Fold:
Amino acid sequence: MVLEITKVCKNFGGLSALTDVTFSINEGEIFGLIGPNGAGKTTMFNLITSMFTPTSGQITFKDEDITTMKSHHITEKGICRTFQNIRLFPEMSALENVMVGQHSRTRSGVLKSVFRTVSQKKEEAKIKDIAEELLDFVGLSTFSDLTSDNLAYGQQRRLEIARALASEPKVLLLDEPAAGMNETETSDLFDLIKKIQQKGITVLIIEHDMPLVMKLCDRIAVLNFGKKIAEGTPLEIQNHPEVIEAYLGKEEEDQYA
Ligand SMILES: Nc1ncnc2c1ncn2[C@@H]1O[C@H](COP(=O)(O)OP(=O)(O)OP(=O)(O)O)[C@@H](O)[C@H]1O
Structure:
């Protein structure tokens, strides 16, 4: 088990965003977290990355309790995420955006040195090399000098993934990576996430694009009103009566048969 979520609850005032949610993720798998709007999926990401603390319950990463660990320590441990709304630096180049993503792994910090020592210069050169490799990995090497606001939407989402990869995650959390993508971009995204898995990185993905989720994920957990209503393989999830009723809807049932 790489990540274990045990009996996690999160209340916001009187609202129970998550109630007693338990699931665990195996090393190297692509795990989907799905459910209707407001089901608590992003809240779960916010708890795993310590943007919020659970009201109760436990989160462990490789058997270490990380429930109350600070966010930056969680990044250093090897958990990194992308956001539902793109959060790039719009006026920085694609390359610089990825270079910034490495800050948790560097000693002297990126782009800030005024009096640069030889070792800092070497480190910067290495940071640039790694960023170039990552841009190549996500298929954006020809756009390296473009500012991120000049990239197409699907490219910006891939750039976000490259930036997240720059922190050398063991577990990558993707929050609706296919949102707003056309069919070709979604198909490229599928290939990219599979390549990330092949690198040995575990992927936890929130996604509303059901055909993509069903094709991509090894296992899936389904939330509804903050509670887990099902967990299993894509086939098990597609045939789960409570999921069909709560989430997929009768109309869409045939689509996945
Ligand atoms: N910071 C917050 N303060 C108060 N309520 C919140 C906060 N964050 C989330 N919520 C509430 O918790 C519930 C779960 O929200 P969450 O964003 O986790 O759902 P979601 O499954 O990610 O939805 P979507 O698919 O629409 O992104 C919602 O009712 C939401 O309004």
